[in-house]
Amino acid sequence: MRNKMLKELILHITLDVTSGKEKKKPYRDIAVLETQSLSTFAKAIVEAFGFGFDHCYGFYDNLNDMFRSKELYELFTDLKEDPTPGALGVEHVKISKAFSIVGKTMRFLFDYGDGWQFTVVLCDIKPAQDKTKYPKVIGRFGDAPEQYPEIKDDDEEFYFDDCAICQGMRQAEKEGKTLSLEELKSLFEKQNKQN
């Protein structure tokens, strides 16, 4: 029997791309226990959209410019790989720390290379249910796009001319180098300013 004081958090997660004939953004509603980690929640999000949980990620309170967030949680902090100053980790931080009041909204960024962005909103807090395995998908709409769509032989089509991130990746590929985290963050900031 579960502790009667334990709370269940209901979160609405929207993938920030349009999908299907309706051109609406796909979403998932997920119930988690307040004591579960942000890492457990991140895995639930990624798997609910049919993606492999194979990249770094973070949660950010600035929805328009993640890298100017005042409240941020990143896997890089736990890995001790070039963590963003001020970022808390995700492995040991409970979801209730990041999402403590109904209406709290954060951006979830998965895979800093491909840049999958999700908007996460805490919709409800209620007593946890007995005999329920958490996290649990409780609502869904739409199909997510493929995580790794097939790339045609002509790599030029992969890089969009109006995308700062694509142009930076194209240049790095031509030079035979890999972009650092700082270079990627700079490109994301540049792209956000263009949008």
UniProtKB/TrEMBL annotation:
It holds the Pfam family PRiA4_ORF3. This is Plasmid pRiA4b Orf3-like domain-containing protein. It comes from Candidatus Gottesmanbacteria bacterium GW2011_GWA1_44_24b. Gene3D superfamilies: MM3350-like. Residues 15-145 form the Plasmid pRiA4b Orf3-like domain.
